[in-house]
Amino acid sequence: MATQAGLSPAAGPLIALTDVTRSYAMAGVVHTVLSGVTLSIDSGEFAAIMGPSGSGKSTLLHLLGLLDRPSAGSYRFAGRETATLCDDDLSTLRNQALGFVFQSFYLIPYATALDNVLLPGLYSNAPRAALTRRAMELLDKVGLAAQAQHKPSQLSGGQQQRVAVARALINDPDCILADEPTGQLDSATSVEIMELLATINRDAGKTVIVVTHEAATAAYARRQILVHDGRVA
Ligand code: ADP
Ligand code: MG
Questions:
Q1: I want to staple 182 with a disulfide (CB 3.0 to 4.6 A). Which of 11, 127, 190, 191 is the partner?
Q2: pLDDT at 125
Q3: Range with the lowest mean pLDDT among 11-15, 158-162, 175-179, 183-187?
Q4: Does residue 42 have a pLDDT over 70?
Q5: Residue among 21, 31, 60, 61 to mutate when testing ligand 1 (max atoms within 8 A of CB)
Q6: What is the pLDDT of residue 9?
Q7: Which residues form a coiled coil (predicted)?
């Protein structure tokens, strides 16, 4: 829970964006990618962020995931204004409270499935043996206990994404953020990954936020958030 990150348990939404803008200056010209975004997501929600390519979905997910900061506006995570946090505090919060899943898996190619799952746990002070046990439990949960010693190249795309989901859970985060998690998978494998995320939402009570432009993927979520031209409908 968020208390792990040194936060007081918050009343109110897990995520609260108020009038958030993200713009980039390029060659002296300011490009506004997101503007006037006001959005709140409660703990335990399963939400899909949808919209056409280039609409600002990934930019929004990066802000939610504390990988990037708003250019203007407020982002409160678990009741705490993130603008007041220094980069180290943001990293700590990100590592403890959030888990990430990306379209291209981003596994370390020379590390085993087990080590890939373990790695984000090394930032905490948990003893190695306990971490190994937890990583094995997570691999078992995603159906890959037998592949723990396999390298990513020895796994199918769907299996690699399962490893990434297990890795996202290693620090027992409040919230899983996934950017087009089924974008490289066939439809049968996509169903497996979305069912896995649904289970994590339902059984473990994790907040799950999935960016997708596929209606079939978004249908797993209980709430659809539409992004269009940098605005949330
Ligand atoms: P989506 O994920 O919906 O396809 P993105 O959030 O990746 O869209 O991008 C939205 C817009 O923001 C695009 O026009 C993209 O070129 C622009 N953009 C994203 N990141 C940057 C950046 N670091 N610098 C400049 N422009 C960016
Ligand atoms: Mg994107």
A1: 190
A2: 83
A3: 11-15
A4: yes
A5: 31
A6: 54
A7: none
Residue 98's domain spans which residues? 3-232
Angle between helices 157-168 and 128-141 (to 10 degrees): 130
- Cβ pair 65, 178 in contact under 8 A: no
pLDDT tens-digit series, residues 138-172: 999 999 999 999 999 999 999 999 999 999 999 99
Please enumerate in sequence order all residues whose Cβ is within 8 A of that of 179, keeping only pairs 6 or more positions apart, or say none. Answer: 57, 58, 61, 100, 101, 102, 103, 211
Residue 13, domain CATH: 3.40.50.300
The CA angle 217-156-211, to the nearest 5 degrees, is 25
Expressed in angstroms and rounded, the spacing between residue 118 Cα and the centre of ligand 1 is: 31
